[in-house]
Design a protein that fits this description.
The chain is of the alpha/beta class. It is built from six helices and five strands.
């Protein structure tokens, strides 16, 4: 069921410019240039459309699109494509934390940023992720 809101072309473009402006200072400070991002979220949702399809193109990033979330496929894609940015939702991070043994079989060292949205990522989950992957920078917006 769709929400009773209208998102215009100008709204979407403004959101892309807003996201790029917001991240420009920290990206410059950290020396982050074009990167490989994971496109796992539905492109029919504004989070998926803006952060998986439009913002990465504007930044010059490469995006690896997966049709749906399956932990093994997700982990293999991160390893194979050396994905640096994960745009995800909290249930995916829960799967990662709860399946440490399976995750340890893959090289996830390329990941620098995890952007979680659509719902808050609780403090306990963030602490668990930081314990398992201390080099991952966790950001969230919802």
């Amino acid at each position: 069921m769709q929400k009773a809101v209208m998102i215009s072309h100008k709204n979407v473009i403004a959101n892309v410019l807003q996201a790029r402006t917001f991240e420009a200072v920290p990206y410059a400070a950290l020396g982050v240039g074009p990167q490989v991002a994971l496109g796992l979220l539905p492109l029919s949702h504004i989070y998926g459309l803006t952060l998986n399809a439009l913002v990465p193109q504007y930044r010059g990033d490469e995006v690896v699109i997966l049709p749906r979330f399956e932990l093994g496929t997700f982990l293999a894609a991160v390893q194979r494509h050396r994905i640096q940015r994960l745009n995800i939702v909290p249930p995916i991070m829960i799967q990662v934390v709860q399946n440490k043994d399976k995750c340890d079989a893959y090289d996830l060292s390329s990941v620098r940023t995890v952007f979680s949205g659509a719902a808050p990522m609780g403090v306990e989950l963030i602490q668990d992720v930081n314990k398992q992957y201390p080099k991952w920078n966790i950001c969230q917006g919802y």
